[in-house]
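Each field is listed here:
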Amino acid sequence: MEIEDDSRATTYTTLAAGPDFRHELEIRRSRFITVLRRSPDEETARALVADLRREFHDARHHCSAFVIGPDRMIQRSSDDGEPSGTAGIPMLEALIKRETTPGVTDLSDVSAVVVRYFGGILLGAGGLVRAYSESVSSALEVAPLVQRRRLRLCAIDVAHADAGRLENDLRSAGYVMAETGYEARHTRLRIALRDEAGAISEAHARLASLTAGTAGLIPLGTEWIDVPL
C-alpha cells in the first residue's frame, strides 16, 4: 500500500505499464522516431534520453519532454541542439494538451523522446515545430493508455457468518472489493472507494443500511491503480 497522497487530482491518464512505445514518421526525408515511456519520476524520464542516446548514437538530435505527477506539477523539455523553441516545447505541449476524453487534458507520468535523423532538407522553424508536435501527437494516437485512479482502501470487520452475504451485497451495489482476511473473531473485508468525500459518505450510509449500523469503515490509506479506458 502507498502512503497518503496529498495531490488534488484523484484520477489522471497515463501510458499503460509495459515496454516503451515507439512510432516513426518521415517528414521531408528526415526520420522522426518517437519513444514514449511511462515515467513516475524525473529519474525514469531522464533515463529514457540516456538510453536512446546510446541506442541511436549516430542521430543528430534527441529532443525530449516529460510531464510527471497527478497534478502535472513537473514539466520539462529540451531542444537538444534544434533552434530554441522548435522541438522540446512543441513536444511538451503535445503531451499536456492531449485530450484523453473529450474536453479532458490529464495525461501525466509520460516522457517522450524524438530521435531525429536529418534527411538533407531544411524544415525551417515552423516546419520543425509542426514535425516535433506531430511526432508526439501521432504516437499518442496509437499508444496504449490507461486511467490512473486513486482509491481509498477501507476495512469492514464482520462476523464470519455474515461476511459472505455482506460481500455479495456490496459487489452487487457496484463496490470494488479487495483482499478478504480471516481472523479469529471476525472476517475482515476490504473495499476500495473513490478518494472523494461523497463516495466515502455514500459507502458509510450503504454499509449502515446493510448491517443495521453494526459495522463501520476502518480507513487503511490510499492506493493508485490502473483502470482500462
User: Anything to note?
Assistant: The chain has a mean pLDDT of 93.
